[in-house]
Amino acid sequence: MTTDTLDAAAPVTRRPRAGGRLHGLLWLVWRQNRVAVWLGLAVVVLGTGWLLTEHLAIADGMDTARRAGCGKPTEWRNPGCNELWNDVYLRAQRFPSIVQPALALLPLLIGLFLGAPLLAQEYEHGTLRLLWTQSVSRSRWLAFRLGGAGLIVLLVSGSLAGAAGWFWLTDVHRGFFTYALPFAAVTYPVIGPVAVATALFALALGAVAGMLLRRTLPAMAATGGALAAVELGLYALRPHLYPLVHTTQVGRSGRDFFHVPEGAWMVSNGTVLPDGSKVPFPCGSDLVCQASRTFYGDYHPVSHLLPIQLIESGILLLGTAALVAFAFHRLRRAAV
Questions:
Q1: Which pTM was predicted?
Q2: 26: which residues sit within 8 A by CB, 6+ positions away?
């Protein structure tokens, strides 16, 4: 071996970064969430594509009916118009009967299959012990883990809520076929910001359940039960999130009742007696109540939909923030 050989500079080789452009925690987050990313993308593309196709088909069906001289769906008595309007009706009815229930289940599915396994599987497989021996702090790892999943949920739920709200507003609520009232049990949670807030809350709830139980199946069961309890509690609280409209009407007879404005949510109604006292509907065997023609109603008009949704979304987002803060607090102080 010569001196020239020793003095020659050795070629410098660079180790390729794992995952191409991504490396470190970003690469790890992508690897752990890539299935959820592709599945979420497929759901968004298929869901929004289907709604757009149905919207165009409904618009075309209504134009065809009008050109045929069938100006309104009330022309169903005309045999020729009946077939045309029935096709439009069936297309519009698919949204409240099929799409809305499916979208209403989305937060539950997120909590069960994305939130609950998010941290529970890390404990089950023992990967945390290896990960924390590296130069990665617990808080930084958790921030990337929750942040990556949260971004997926935000984009998927936001896209679907926007598409569903647009379809409901244009083809159901403002169309001839108003078969999905805005405050209905399966309409309200899928057409506004509360859909996104519920999905994020379900993710955080599942993640915390997985952290505490450290087993996937028990975490899924706990997430489902806790989310159902929260949803029932919010449903009971919802009428009181915004001031009700209180008004009275005079009917044509004692057998009449309070007529709520179109699309409004009737919270309570009944009869006003001559002394000013109120009896909830129905009167029963009270003859004085049956004879009264003055009726009262407490309701939320359609204009209250957005304020109520914003308030409920705020409650859910505060709950999400509290769960995330608890997860960081727990992780920093708990043994692996």
A1: 0.84
A2: 19, 144
